[in-house]
Amino acid sequence: MKQKLREEILSLRRQIPPTLQKEYSQLIQKRLLELEAFTRSVNVMAYVAFRNEVETMPIIQHCLSEGKRVVVPVSVPKTRELLLSELKDPERELRPGTFGVPEPAPGYIRPFPAEDLDLILVPGVAFDERGFRLGYGAGYYDRFFERLTRRVPRIGLAFEIQIIDRVPTDPTDQPVDFIITEKRLIDCRRMGR
Ligand SMILES: Nc1ncnc2c1ncn2[C@@H]1O[C@H](COP(=O)(O)OP(=O)(O)O)[C@@H](O)[C@H]1O
Ligand SMILES: [Mg+2]
After folding, report:
1. This prediction's pTM
2. What's the pLDDT tens digit per position in 116-147?
3. Is residue 73 part of a domain?
4. 110: containing domain
5. Residue nearest to atom 11 of ligand 1 (CA)
6. Is any ligand 1 atom within 6 A of the Cβ of residue 135?
7. Among the four 38, 113, 135, 165, which has the fewest Cβ within 10 Å?
8. What CATH number is associated with residue 92?
9. Is 132 domain-assigned?
10. Ligand nearest to the backbone CA of 138
C-alpha cells in the first residue's frame, strides 16, 4: 500500500521541470520566512535536499546569514536513526553519504543536542492535511520524533502534488505540525487529528 503510493508520488515529483522546481522552492521558502515559528527560531534543523526534494540550500544559507544555527541529520543505517550535526559551511562540509544524501563528511560532524532544536524542517514523499507523512520507507524521522522529549514545531516542505487525501498510517507514524507548499500553508493542528 505505502510502497505503491511512494512510487506514484515520486514519479509525479520527478516530472516537475527544474525551472518550476526552483520557482516552487522559492515560494515555499518565502512562506517559511513569514512563519512566526521560523522567525523566532534560533536552532533550525534542516534536511539537505537531494534528487527532487523541495530545495533547502537557500533556506540554510539564509539561516546562517541571520546568525541562526543550522543542524542537519546524518543517517545511521545500522540503527535507522538520525544523528544531529551542526553545519557551518555547506560548500565545504557536505558530501554524498548514505543513499547519496548530502551529509557532513566525517571530519565535520559536530554533534548537536536534540533538546536545543527550535524548529524541524521535514522532507517527505507525501503528506496529508492531518500532517501524516509518507517517507522513503525506513522510518528514520518516525524514530527521531519519538525520541524528542520536547515539543518542537515540525514543518513538512512539499510540492502541492505531494499532498494527498489520506496517507496510510501505522502506529509508529509521527505527524508534522505544518506543511508548506508553493500554494499554501497548512496548519495540520487544526485538521482534527
Ligand atoms: N519508532 C519506531 N521504532 C521502531 N520501528 C519503527 C519506528 N518508526 C518506524 N518504524 C519502522 O520503520 C519501518 C518503516 O516505517 P514507515 O513508516 O513505513 O516508513 P516511512 O516513515 O519512511 O514512510 C516500519 O517497519 C516501521 O514499523
Ligand atoms: Mg512512517
Report:
1. 0.97
2. 999 999 999 999 999 999 999 999 999 999 99
3. yes
4. 2-140+149-169+180-185
5. 139
6. yes
7. 165
8. 3.40.50.10420
9. yes
10. 1
Residue 49: per-residue pLDDT: 97
Q: Residue 22 Cα, ligand 1 centroid: separation in angstroms? A: 30
Whether the CB of 136 sits within 6 Å of ligand 1:
yes
Residue 191 reports pLDDT greater than 90? no
79 lines ligand 1 (CB under 6 A): no
Residue 159 Cα to ligand 1 middle (Å): 23
Q: What is the 3-state secondary structure (H, E, C) of the chain?
A: CHHHHHHHHHHHHHCCCHHHHHHHHHHHHHHHHHCHHHHCCCEEECCCCCCCCCCCHHHHHHHHHCCCEEEEEEEECCCCEEEEEEECCHHHHEEECHHHCEEECHHHCCECCHHHCCEEEECCCEECCCCCEECCCCCHHHHHHHHCCCCCCEEEECCHHHECCCCCCCCCCCCCCEEECCCCEEEHHHCCC
Residue 5 has a pLDDT of 97
